[in-house]
Write a structure and sequence with these properties.
By secondary structure, the chain is mostly helical. Helix content is 74%, strand content 0%.
């Protein structure tokens, strides 16, 4: 029996809608980022951008929280397949493992791109609304690129986590690796070896959020480096799904 690509995509979308962990993480990308942006800008008048004098980068201060939710979305959506034999049921319905894997990653990427872009645009506009005459607009240098590129960045991080989860089969394991990597290791490496830190997935991808990128990578080059990290994780996940028993 041949299963159509459209039917597989629809089934994966239904899984996202009905799994509370996945849907909750996806919604948290928007809620956490926008809520923290409003809270910070409303109380202190500007975001603290980790010592940066780039006001555009500071406008996306809360995206660090949103990216954790994006990682959780990618990880939990994949790890749900490894609970209570769900993967065996999925592969019985969709025998083609490549089609199954590609459809799942397409839905994860598509959902994150839509929500992520809405998140970055809303957070930017909401935060700047508190700055009066000092506010940036979408017409300012780099602003539109940052809003759109930020959505792509969140998408790549979700796919990065999803691919790793297909390898490790555990959202907890993946988040235990990635969250410290982004919140601790990235800063430690940055202090010790700035050139190496430029190639880490978060620091590279976040160049797109800056009006004036720092380090050795430009905004789109940095995003391409993050895309390479995601592509390698997705490739490893695909190989694992094809080779391992359900």
């Amino acid at each position: 029996m041949t299963v159509s690509t459209t039917a597989v995509l629809h089934s994966e979308w239904l899984k996202v809608r009905t799994l509370r962990g996945s849907l909750g993480s996806l919604l948290a990308v928007f809620v956490a980022t926008v809520a923290i942006t409003v809270l910070v800008f409303a109380t202190v008048g500007r975001a603290e951008s980790d010592g940066s004098d780039d006001p555009l980068f500071g406008a996306f201060y809360a995206l660090d929280f949103g990216q954790i939710a994006a990682l959780a979305f990618g990880a939990t959506t994949v790890s749900a397949e490894y609970l209570d034999g769900a993967l065996r049921v999925s592969l019985a319905a969709v025998p083609g493992r490549t089609l199954f894997y590609a459809a799942k990653m397409t839905v994860i990427g598509g959902c994150t791109l839509v929500v992520g872009t809405a998140t970055t645009c809303t957070a930017f506009v909401a935060g700047q609304a508190f700055l009066g005459s000092d506010a940036l607009g979408l017409g300012d240098p780099g602003a539109l690129r940052a809003c759109l590129g930020g959505g792509v960045y969140l998408t790549l991080m979700a796919l990065f986590a999803a691919g790793l989860t297909a390898v490790l089969r555990s959202a907890v394991a993946v988040l235990s690796i990635l969250v410290p990597l982004l919140l601790i290791v990235s800063f430690v490496v940055g202090d010790l070896a700035a050139t190496a830190a430029d190639l880490l997935p978060d620091r590279a991808g976040q160049q797109v959020l800056r009006e004036h990128p720092v380090g050795s990578l430009g905004p789109w080059t940095g995003l391409a480096v993050t895309a390479l990290w995601a592509a390698l994780a997705l490739l490893a996940g695909w190989w694992t799904v094809r080779r391992r028993d359900a």
